[in-house]
Amino acid sequence: MVTHICRYLMVFFLFQCALVNGTARAGEFKAYVGEIPPLIYLNDAGLARGAVVDVVVEAMEMAGIPLDQDSDIASISWARAIEDVEYTPRTMIFCMARTEQREDRFKWVGPVAEMNVGLVAMKHSSVSISDKDDVRKYRIGVIRSSGPVDILESEYGVLKENLTQVASDELQFRMLKAGRVDLITQADIAAPVLIREMGMPSGAYEMVHVLQHLYLYVAFNKQTDDELLEKVREAIGELRSSEDGAPSRYDLLLRKHAPEEPLPYRAK
């Protein structure tokens, strides 16, 4: 425990020295986020908050490159954010699934979170899925350029014409409720928060099939310095580590932001 505390204090001391020397300034990086409550969500002022936001902000500070939580982190369309980070130096995006299609387009740090991503249906629907062939029979609502799009197309062979791509989670749920799609893609930990915020009945939806247990990362523009990335990796490792069975800093942040239970699964 003493060793753990000393390492943390040493990193913090080096960060303070960087501040004094003027080498660490907010605004050096621009970060984009996608909403995955309670990991990442927007407050009433439209500012990014959540367990992973806190972790990444603290890790960047420990690495000597502070992010201003209010001015350096933005939520724009996911497709536009991915494109901006791919082509613009000193940019980053989180949380993002590390898929085969994305691997060589970014530099990766993490994982910073994990969750089950799956197919969600109305609770009393007739949807029945026992294998990948069944998935291909249904109309599925997805977030444009999201990880589940890659999974459905590459691993399940779902045709593009069976995917309805939209810009927001709210549109997904409204299309499902209206019967315009049979299924939508959602994360088990995020869906209950979204349902509550939209004022929809919490017991009306259930996960009928898990697509993937997904690990989520911070993706940086490929021109980002490798030495900086290693510092961020070490800082995230510190925040996620625990000793003597005590909760890690990450665990405490997740509990702070995650009051809901994950979305229920349909009984087989």
From TrEMBL:
The keyword Nucleotide-binding does not apply. SUPFAM superfamilies: Periplasmic binding protein-like II. InterPro entries: Solute-binding_3/MltF_N. Keywords: Signal. It comes from the Bacteria. Pfam families: SBP_bac_3. Gene3D superfamilies: Periplasmic binding protein-like II. Residues 34-242 form the Solute-binding protein family 3/N-terminal domain. Residues 1-26 form the signal peptide. PANTHER family: PERIPLASMIC SUBSTRATE BINDING PROTEIN FAMILY 3 (PTHR38834), SOLUTE-BINDING PROTEIN FAMILY 3_N-TERMINAL DOMAIN-CONTAINING PROTEIN (PTHR38834:SF3). This is Solute-binding protein family 3/N-terminal domain-containing protein.
